[in-house]
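Protocol step 4 of 6: structure prediction from sequence.
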Amino acid sequence: MKKEIVNRIKQLGGNVANVKGVSLQEDLCAITFDTALYQKPEDTPWQSAEDTEPIEGLGDWVDENMELFNSDRETFYKKMVDTYYTLDEEPRRQLFWIAKPFTPLQEGTPDFEEWNDWFSDEAELDEIIQHSNCATPAFVELLYTDAYPNNYFICVSDLNIDNPIVWSTDHEEFFTEVTNEGTLENFLNKFMTKEEFIDIVKRKMEQ
């Protein structure tokens, strides 16, 4: 992977200590996170409506902690980050890094036994294969979320292993509909670091 990708993962809270540059799959699966990830809000400026909050439910949290904000802003922002940047699965449209192999087309693997009939009869892989050097691609399941779409994958035989494409699909249309989410580098830049999250809230709270 590109150095810029590894650096961005580190900025987002990922542990990249075990990335050795051996292979795309091994490097991705060696990365761990002790926090969820949140995409940057597309609607700016942040308003009170839930769909424009940086994180779902943040407005209510801020209202509940205004006394702390008025008395100790540094502690307020630390508490805010500690509340949201965790592995708590309370639905907030967050994504979780799981980075594990997914091999529905590789005979002899558990995923093949479970999924090959579906992938043989239902899945639409033409677009993915166009960006791959393999007609029976293997994947790394990179992220999952309770929001739509549920699953994000990397094809490990992507034509550009230094900066592969991220593919998303939902559990209800699992690989029958896939979306090209762009390169991994661009995709990761859609997420907020803790510092970027604080900056967004500060601009709203302290304007």
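Step 5 (inspection) to follow. The chain has two domains: 3-37+93-188, 50-89+193-205.
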